[in-house]
Amino acid sequence: MPPLIEFERVSVMRGGSIVLHDVSLRVDPGEHVAILGPNGCGKSTLIKTIARECYPLLREGTRLALFGKERWNIFDLRPLLGLVSNDQMTICTREITARDAVISGFFGSIGVQSYQLLTPGMERKTAEILALLDIAHLAERPVDQMSSGEARRVLIGRALVHDPRALVLDEPSNSLDVSAQHELREMLRKLARSGIGIILVTHHLADIIPEIERVILMRGGRIVGDGRKPEVLTAAALEDLFGLTVDLARRDGYYHLW
Fold first, then answer.
1. Three-state DSSP state, 253
2. Based on the domain organization, do 257 and 170 belong to the same domain?
3. Are residues 85 and 156 in the same domain?
4. S-S: 180 plus which of 32, 87, 162, 176, CB 3.0-4.6 Å?
5. CA 101, 104, 108: angle at the middle one, nearest 5?
6. Left if phi > 0, otherwise alpha if psi is -120 to 50, otherwise beta: which for 180?
7. Are residues 156 and 115 in the same domain?
């Protein structure tokens, strides 16, 4: 199968400044990858470029392909990549039920509109996703009455309704308390073991679940490290990445930094 993501010398400009500089990256189908770096390093722009919200500068040698194709209709691409972002958290947290929020993933809308036709297959799939994520009991509760952890699960459910080949998560543990972070990580472990690819973007080292074996380090809009966790996640590399002296520990497959 062709690579899930293939960047060759990709640079992206936002607000008059280049925020990604000559990024080359390949992610294969089914691969579990974490992209780690401080705030402002270009992680979110990288995700927006994958999602076709940002586009690279036209330069010699630049290539950007998803699933082996360089040109996509965004509506054809959406079912293949399940995107969960903080922008969606803001948009989707409103007076719609968890069920309607999840099923709206079939249409790319926020909630279900009167003109949208729901099929029995969509209803069944939504029920399966709610059960998979242990939120079936929240099906009729409005999202704006949920905790941040519950709402995050609903967003993940919305991204999963198409059975995408990969789940792309942008800073998924933001605004979650310790208990909700633990629940999120356990759920991501279950999804990773199910076979779906996981691309996790974070600045929290503890978000990198044991099933993720490859870590990419980003700083200043560039990739400064890429490899297996034991090779990349060293105290020296993380001190250079975050610009401060750190202590690094490993426990039960997780890495911890302080």
1. coil
2. yes
3. yes
4. 176
5. 125
6. alpha
7. yes
Give residue for tokens 């966790």: 229
Q: What mean pLDDT comes out for the span 245-253?
A: 92
User: What is the arithmetic mean of pLDDT over 14-20?
Assistant: 92
Going by their DSSP bridges, the two strands 222-228 and 248-251 should be labelled as: unpaired
Sign of CA dihedral 85, 190, 109, 90: negative
Give CA–CA dist 213/40, Å, rounded: 24
Quick check: 238 pLDDT over 90? yes
- Residues recorded for the chain: 258
* Residue 175: predicted pLDDT: 82
Pairing mode, strands 81-84 and 166-170 = parallel
Please give the sequence-ordered ranges of beta strands (E in DSSP) within 58-177, or none if there are none: 63-66, 81-84, 166-170
The pLDDT tens digits of the residues spanning 82-127 come to 999 877 777 766 788 999 999 999 988 888 888 888 999 999 999 9
- Say which residues have a Cβ less than 8 Å from residue 145's Cβ, sequence separation at least 6: none
To the nearest 10 degrees (0 to 180), the angle between helices 148-160 and 120-132 is 140
- Express each pLDDT in 44-82 by its tens digit: 899 999 988 899 999 899 999 999 999 998 888 888 999
CA distance 180 to 3: 33
Is residue 209 domain-shared with residue 257, that is, in the same domain? yes
Which one, of 8, 15, 49, 22, lies nearest residue 199 by Cα? Answer: 49
End-to-end Cα spacing for the chain? 40
